[in-house]
From TrEMBL:
Keywords, ordered alphabetically: Hydrolase
UniProt GO MF annotations: hydrolase activity
PANTHER family, per database record: METAL-DEPENDENT HYDROLASE
Name listed for the protein in its UniProt record: Metal-dependent hydrolase
Entries under InterPro entries matching the protein: UCP07580
């Protein structure tokens, strides 16, 4: 079997950074664009409870993992805890601008409720798929500076900080999945992860689109024209959804692993801004078998 592609010299470095505590963001903080602002605001609402779900799902399998993987899980958890804290603060800015995010939060609660009572391996599979989403969005966010051009500085810094850490730990949930399913056949592993990814993708796009439309409606923007402009924002210009399609589809290829595409150079573009916030770094994970 091919080995997983987690780089042996990869380190996961939690950066304890705080953003925007002493300022107030514009209502349309993303370059005055209501669609861009709604996109990031709707995504941010999912993070506090969503990342708590990720932490619980991965931590279930820490016992018995290799020392390296256990250390990476620990650093993954540290990063996600700080992401949760910062998005709670960011979401307060959204509320301060007069938005009601209760319906968006309820959708997140409803999505997480669907996982209750399911086997831990099922929740890990969902986490692995969602971590792939966050990693490929993070890649695109940093690779194309136009996504955050003109944004309020502290908000842009928050999203870039979050993005580099998502790239950095993008293999942890997947390596945990490989460890947890080490006794499965390659076919069973691929079948389960493919089915889960299709379900997760449908729910992800539906949920985030509903959230964006909810926020836009609170700005008095409704109707077919708004839906068309929302589609154009996602798939045409700047086209985040379109640009990540290839990376999303790679998940289904035999032998896929998140680190088959080594994009650490993107981390280096941003990382120096947070040198002073670095916590002790963790060594890389072990090299479990790839599917």
């Amino acid at each position: 079997m091919a080995k997983a592609k987690t780089p042996t010299d990869l380190t996961i470095t939690p950066r304890d950074q705080r953003f925007g505590r002493e300022e107030r963001y514009r209502r349309w903080w993303a370059n005055g664009d209501p669609y861009a602002s709604a996109f990031y605001n709707a995504l941010s609402v999912t993070f506090p409870k969503g990342e708590g779900f990720f932490i619980d799902s991965v931590r279930q399998f820490r016992d018995g993992a290799s020392p390296r993987l256990a250390r990476e899980i620990k650093s993954f958890v540290q990063q996600e805890v700080m992401h949760t804290r910062e998005h709670v603060a960011f979401n307060r800015h959204v509320v301060d601008q007069g938005y009601d995010i209760s319906r968006l939060e309820k959708r997140v609660d409803d999505e997480i409720a669907l996982t209750r009572g399911r086997p831990p391996i099922a929740n890990l599979a969902a986490t692995m798929c969602l971590e792939h989403f966050t990693a490929i969005i993070a890649n695109e966010l940093i690779a194309d500076p136009r996504h955050l051009a003109g944004a309020d500085q502290a908000a842009a810094d928050l999203w870039r900080w979050h993005a580099i850490e998502e790239i950095e730990h993008k293999g942890v949930a997947y390596d945990t999945w490989l460890y947890a399913t080490r006794d499965w056949s390659r076919w069973r592993r691929w079948k389960v992860k493919a089915i889960v990814m299709l379900i997760v993708t449908a729910r992800f796009f539906r949920g985030r689109a509903q959230g964006m439309l909810d926020l836009l409606a609170q700005d008095g923007m409704t109707g077919p024209g708004v839906k068309w402009r929302l589609f154009r924002y996602a798939f045409v210009r700047p086209g985040m959804a379109r640009k990540i399609l290839g990376a999303w589809a790679s998940f289904f290829l035999p032998g896929f692993h998140p680190w088959k595409h080594d994009d650490r150079q993107l981390i280096a573009l941003v990382d120096s801004d947070y040198q002073d916030a670095r916590l002790p770094r963790s060594p890389a994970a072990g090299q479990p078998q790839a599917v």
